[in-house]
Amino acid sequence: MFSQKNIYQLAVTGALLLAGCTSDDVAFEAAPAGSVPLSFTCSSDDGFSDDDQGGTRAVLGYQGPMDSEDLRHTGFGVFASQRVDGTPDMMYNQEVKFTYTGDKTDPLKGYWSYQPTKYWPSDLTHFYIGAYAPYQDPVAVDSDEPGIIGISENSHEPYIEFRRSLKPEDCVDLLWYFGQPSTVPAATADHEAGTLAMNMGHALARLEVSVKLSDPPANSDPPANTKVLLESIEIFGSMASEGRLMLNKQITETKTVGEDKVTVHYPKWDMQKTVNHRFLIDNDESNNGVIYDGSIPEYRANYGIIDANVRYVEGLPYKWQPAGLSTTAQNVLSDLDRKTYIYLIPKAEAQSLTVNVKYRKMTDAGADDTYNTGSQTAGITLGNPLRGNTPYKLIIKLNNI
What we know:
Shape: elongated
Distance between the termini: 28 Å
Radius of gyration: 24 Å
Number of domains: 2
Strand content: 35-45%
């Protein structure tokens, strides 16, 4: 029974061509003429549902699940190796770019490419492929910014070092793939031989925050003309701030879904730093920054403005307010029509958080300033351990309304 966690599966299909090296590659002999070029198919579909495994997104200036068009803008970084020790001897952070060739009937048409072409090795015993998005040039990594802050050297097992943003509007996410093909893929009606179907997941955990009124007693209705409007939601706890995503391994588990057993894959994270972190979600646009209090110590960050459908707007008469909360869960955060989320770096234990919500309740009696204030505080636990490639949903129920 998953009471506060919805797990989804992000399916990834489409057209991506990979095969190349950079000047940092270890020397690798080109395959003889007639060998099969190494290529892939890959795209991203935001097909989340309550019954699927899933993920988050790689950000492009806004938040929400990554779609195929986003992927085409970010590109991929690819690692591939035949080495037992995992160090890349075939592809090292190979950038893969998308070129649009579409027209009015199909504007998104195009292809993925890289240079030079690589070929499937004859022995796949220790062969692996790891990939991530958005692509990052190691030379351009800025350690002062959130997101990717480091990439392994070619003499090491491949990894991405990642920093989670303390300012939620700067949150970035990370797409991730790992595979160990045992045979060269056969030709299909759509693709030539050697084209591997790549299923990408998401490296971070995603937390959606929703709020609702508790269900009224049976055979009764909520009080007439009652509005409940949010003032703030505070979420705080000790959270991983930096981590290392391994690209030559993954975590594999078998789960029981109904009467069936399914295999689920999760990203493998190492080397984490943690901070005490407090997210504040309110209606004060000026309260938007990161504050570090060394005496606690903790980082505080204003997440953003509560969605207009559920928020209390300071200074406006209640007759101008939105309809207020209902017994149907409503997303607290949005960016226009897109939901937004809090992203968390996975860790080996559960994520403990404390949630405090403040609200105002009013029953319309002709006055605009007659209301009661209330608050609720509760502790929650996400996962055990907290997994990447997994969205979690926090539904806050306001009681005794």
